[in-house]
Amino acid sequence: MIIIGIVLSFISLGYLCWLIFALAVNALPLFAGVTAGLAAYQSNSGPIAAIAVAAIVSVIVLLAGQIAFRTLRSTPVRAVIALLFAVPAAVAGYHAAHGLAHIVVPIEGWRQTMAIAGAIMVATIAWARISLSAPNDAGRTLPLA
Q1: I want to staple 119 with a disulfide (CB 3.0 to 4.6 A). Which of 9, 42, 65, 93 is the partner?
Q2: Confidence of residue 141 (pLDDT cuts 50, 70, 90)
Q3: What is the CA radius of gyration of the chain?
Q4: Are the beta carbons of 123 and 89 closer than 8 angstroms?
Q5: pTM for this structure?
C-alpha cells in the first residue's frame, strides 16, 4: 500500500511540474484577467460579470501578445514582448517551485535555491515558447531598396 502511495505521489508531482511548464506562457493573460475581474467585481458588477470580464481580458491579452510578436519584425520589440510574458511566468514558477520545495526540503536556503532555479526554468520555457511561436524568416530575402 505504501509503495502505491509513493508511486502515485511521483506521478502526481510529475504531472504538476508538466502543468506548470505547459501553462507558463499563460501567466501574463491570467494575471491581467484576474486583475480586471477583481476590478470589475469591486465596482459592484457581480460575480458573473466579473468572470466574463476576466475571461475576455485574458483572451485579448493572449491574442494581442501573440499577434504582436508574430507581426512585428523588430528584434528589440520582440524581446520586450517576450519579456512581458516571461516575467510573470518567472514569478509563477518561483512560487510553484517554492511551494513544492517547502514540502520536501527542510532548509530555507535550499528552498530559495530551488525556487530561484524553478523561476529561471519556467521563465526560459515561457521565453522559448513565445519565441518559437513566431514564423521563421530564414527563407525570406530583404528588399534592397
Answers
A1: 93
A2: very low
A3: 19
A4: yes
A5: 0.74
